[in-house]
Amino acid sequence: MFRAGLRNTMAFAGVSVCMLFGAAMPAAADDHVVKVTPLGSHDGEFCGRDRALVFEDPNGTRILYDAGRTVAGPDDPRLGKIDVVLVSHMHGDHVGDQRISKTNQGTCGSPDTGVSTLPQSNTVDIAVKHGSKIVTGSEMPAFFAAKLKDAGGDPANSLLVRFGGEREVGGVAITTVPAVHSNGVSPSFLTGPLAEYLAAAGVGASVGPPTGYVLRFSNGLVVYLSGDTGITAEQRLVVKDHYGAGLVVMNIGDTFTTGPKQAAYVINDLVQPKAVIASHANEPATSGGMVQEGTRTALFRDSVTVPVHVPLSGRTMAFNGMASCVSGCN
Description:
Layout: E1 8-12, E2 15-20, E3 23-26, E4 34-38, E5 53-56, E6 62-65, E7 84-86, H1 92-95, E8 98-99, E9 115-116, H2 122-130, E10 133-136, H3 140-150, E11 158-160, E12 167-169, E13 172-178, E14 184-185, H4 192-201, E15 205-206, E16 211-216, E17 222-225, H5 234-240, E18 247-251, H6 260-271, E19 275-279, E20 286-287, E21 290-291, H7 296-303, E22 308-309, E23 317-319, E24 325-327
Parallel strand pairs: 6-7, 7-10, 10-11, 17-18, 18-19, 19-22
Antiparallel strand pairs: 1-2, 2-3, 4-5, 4-23, 5-6, 8-9, 12-13, 13-16, 14-15, 16-17, 20-21, 23-24
Region (Disordered): 96-116
Signal peptide: 1-29
InterPro entries: Metallo-B-lactamas, RibonucZ/Hydroxyglut_hydro, UPF0173_UPF0282_UlaG_hydrolase
């Protein structure tokens, strides 16, 4: 289980030892890393609809987070093997109500996501093709179990982990944490009279509150995935004080989630990680792989006191157990 604990480093017989979750463990070597690969709409850029990240544990377990619209379906060659799919909430830009046909279509600010995935979703299509587990909290597991069954998959592959609990899949410990957002299922994901009634009323079905995630990898790296959220007290009391997250994937897009200044407060004052990956910027944040000045991403980068890593699509970053990027970061 996750354990609360302080992270301290000490020297013992010339070997660096990390105190994490109250237990001593050797500091990870540079080749014992968690790989993080963004799957965006345009190669080498951080674009307006980019959400998806693939995490690969040193043991080979691969986790897709919020496939959204920029993964080109289950046959996207960038996916490789996918063991686990995480979904923070049911909005179309996260679960995937439509998707790209291939990369570099349209513009970075307005990518072409014209392939409909309704009523199933990009998430379900990927999970069925790859035999992946879908791990969610709240009331989402029952929804995904039904979708998997409808698509010819195994409904038992939809797994629950609620706040305060933990589920280990492929050697990676997964828990959900609170996010403050909405989580209605659009009628477009549904069929039959219920879908028609909801659409006519202008409302969606409820699957409970949205979530963030905390992941603990086999090299000791602890990652907080904020999901779409505003500022919450749990970001300090739970994510920092209990789980001790070293790396954060932080949404910065404003209006729909934390803006860059609010996100910077979360990082600097609440979670206080070792490093952060910007996410969900809702803008063409880069050009030629370089952050454009005047963007939300630039403001966030300049407001944060820890290293900010920009998720350039297709560029793999590697993090050791202490959340230091050892390769691939800009």
